[in-house]
């Protein structure tokens, strides 16, 4: 099967539980030497870093084989603070989701892939009843979890900021987070968030929400 899709080379930062969406922001603290090298390289070139989640490690004999999910999001370094000891504090701005084609054989300490970037488009607004359901379930989940939330500020968010913001910060497992990233559109992502909150928001005997 042939394809006319254009691929691009991305340096990646595999980080479980960390999602980035287009037009959203993600703060990251960089301390490992290989990812310090990644940031230095990105700053010298196009300021782009591919955020992608690793899958649970598989084992072949005595060798651990790190696998990656197929989809991630390209982030552009919008802010960088270089610390005296070589660490970085970054803020990434989401540019576009990408789908990995293959991992490249490289000599750099950080991993690189060949990927296809998705075209950025605007989703349809949520239906009023869907927005209300999402806000209601989010309030229940946050209160059970013990989170302190400015609900007045939440109410002022547009649909995209609300849905993708929850998807980024919600304490779900890696597979659930990946499902949110891969949701086809915002309405599907909002429905999935509600389902996940109901599934993960179970109480144990100490009246605390369990997430596993």
Q: Give the helix proportion (percent range).
A: 25-40%
Shape: globular
Q: Describe the largest sheet.
A: 5 strands, mixed, barrel
Number of helices: 6
Q: What strand line-up does the widest sheet have?
A: 1-3-6-7-8
Residues in β-strands, percent: 25-35%
Number of strands: 10
The low-confidence runs, each spanning 5 or more residues with pLDDT under 50, are: 203-212
- Please write the string of helix (H) and strand (E) elements: EEHEEEEEEHHHHHEE
Oligomer: single chain
Using only C-alpha atoms, the radius of gyration works out to 18 Å
Cα-to-Cα separation, first versus last residue = 40 Å
Structural class: alpha+beta
Mean pLDDT: 90
Describe the structure.
Residues 203-212 have low confidence and may be disordered. By secondary structure, the chain is α+β, with helices and mostly antiparallel strands. It has a five-stranded mixed β-barrel with strand order 1-3-6-7-8. It has a two-stranded antiparallel ribbon with strand order 4-5. The chain has a two-stranded antiparallel sheet with strand order 9-10. Helix 4 (159-169) packs across helix 6 and helix 5 packs antiparallel against helix 6 (186-200). It is globular and about 50 Å long. The protein has six helices and ten strands; from the N terminus they run E-E-H-E-E-E-E-E-E-H-H-H-H-H-E-E.
């Amino acid at each position: 099967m042939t394809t006319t899709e254009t691929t691009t080379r991305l340096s990646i930062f595999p980080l479980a539980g960390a999602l980035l969406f287009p037009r959203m922001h993600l703060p990251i603290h960089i301390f490992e030497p290989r990812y310090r090298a990644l940031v230095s390289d990105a700053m010298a070139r196009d300021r782009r870093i591919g955020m992608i989640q690793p899958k649970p490690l598989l084992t072949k004999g005595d060798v651990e084989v790190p696998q990656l999910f197929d989809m991630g999001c390209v982030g552009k370094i919008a802010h960088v603070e270089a610390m005296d000891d070589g660490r970085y504090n970054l803020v990434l701005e989401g540019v576009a989701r990408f789908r990995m084609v293959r991992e490249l054989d490289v000599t750099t300490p950080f991993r690189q892939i060949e990927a296809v970037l998705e075209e950025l488009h605007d989703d349809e607004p949520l239906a009023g009843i869907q927005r209300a359901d999402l806000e209601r379930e989010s309030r229940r989940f946050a209160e059970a979890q013990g989170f302190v939330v400015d609900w007045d500020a939440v109410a002022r968010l547009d649909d995209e900021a609300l849905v993708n913001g929850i998807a980024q910060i919600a304490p779900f497992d890696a597979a659930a987070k990946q499902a949110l990233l891969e949701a086809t559109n915002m309405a599907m992502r909002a429905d999935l968030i509600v389902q996940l909150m109901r599934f993960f928001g179970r109480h144990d005997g100490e009246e605390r929400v369990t997430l596993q």
